[in-house]
Amino acid sequence: MTNDALQLPGQTLTLSGGSTIPLLGFGTWQIKGDDAVRATAAALEAGYRHLDTATVYGNEAEVGRALAESGVPRDQVFVTTKCPPDNAGKELDTLKKSLELLQLDHVDLWLIHWPGSGSVNTDLWKAFIEARDAGLTKEIGVSNFDAALLDEVTQATGEAPAINQIRWSPLLFDAQTVGDHRDRGVALEGYSALRGGTLDHPVIVEIAERLDRTPAQVIIRWHLQHETVVIPKSVNADRIRSNADVGGFELSAEDMTTLDGLGS
């Protein structure tokens, strides 16, 4: 199969800061060393234009190397990295180190990787705003926050996160969570979509077989039709390509409702 045969999705979402994020991204959690270089290179070759990494993943250098060697223009790739709350007080140093490893002068999105305790989230968020205003990142957001924590940092600074990256799949779908984000103007991004039994769930498997698609493709397509960012990961080049080949079909309204119901 050539890349021309792949039907990649073209859907994007405009974040609150004005940046455009592709709904389909490539996740790199738990991919290390040469595997990270190869997998990221395979994703870029397949047509992914959104890469997701983090300080604690220990693979920013490899992701950056793959991007640098890919020949894909920097302005065509949306790059996300994340700062652990343990690095509170040295946020800018953390981001500058990430940029050095990624071989970039800025990232497109920088996230607080998970909530800290006490006043840490607010302190981190203020530093994130400074980093954005300094041009080190275009957008700022959070990960693993609930609605109360979103409100906490927003009320402390007057600025809401552009996006919240949380664990998400049809099995975790919750209309209240979707509404909470929509009401706050915070985009929803899901991770671990292909984990937690989703690929083997009989309802998902049935829909996939009926549409002559893989369960992974059905799950990814479900995210796209909800305008939820999704970042599937794999070290297998064929699977990386297959996961991106979701632009040539749509789930019916009935299938979407059925999949939504798996979370209840």
Automatic annotation (TrEMBL):
<comment type="similarity">
    <text>Belongs to the aldo/keto reductase family.</text>
</comment>
<dbReference type="Pfam" id="PF00248">
    <property type="entry name" value="Aldo_ket_red"/>
</dbReference>
<feature type="domain" description="NADP-dependent oxidoreductase">
    <location>
        <begin position="24"/>
        <end position="262"/>
    </location>
</feature>
<feature type="site" description="Lowers pKa of active site Tyr">
    <location>
        <position position="82"/>
    </location>
</feature>
<keyword id="KW-0560">Oxidoreductase</keyword>
<dbReference type="GO" id="GO:0016616">
    <property type="term" value="F:oxidoreductase activity, acting on the CH-OH group of donors, NAD or NADP as acceptor"/>
</dbReference>
<dbReference type="InterPro" id="IPR036812">
    <property type="entry name" value="NAD(P)_OxRdtase_dom_sf"/>
</dbReference>
<dbReference type="InterPro" id="IPR023210">
    <property type="entry name" value="NADP_OxRdtase_dom"/>
</dbReference>
<feature type="binding site">
    <location>
        <position position="113"/>
    </location>
    <ligand>
        <name>substrate</name>
    </ligand>
</feature>
<feature type="active site" description="Proton donor">
    <location>
        <position position="57"/>
    </location>
</feature>
<dbReference type="InterPro" id="IPR018170">
    <property type="entry name" value="Aldo/ket_reductase_CS"/>
</dbReference>
<keyword id="KW-0521">NADP</keyword>
<protein>
    <submittedName>
        <fullName>Aldo/keto reductase</fullName>
    </submittedName>
</protein>
<dbReference type="InterPro" id="IPR020471">
    <property type="entry name" value="AKR"/>
</dbReference>
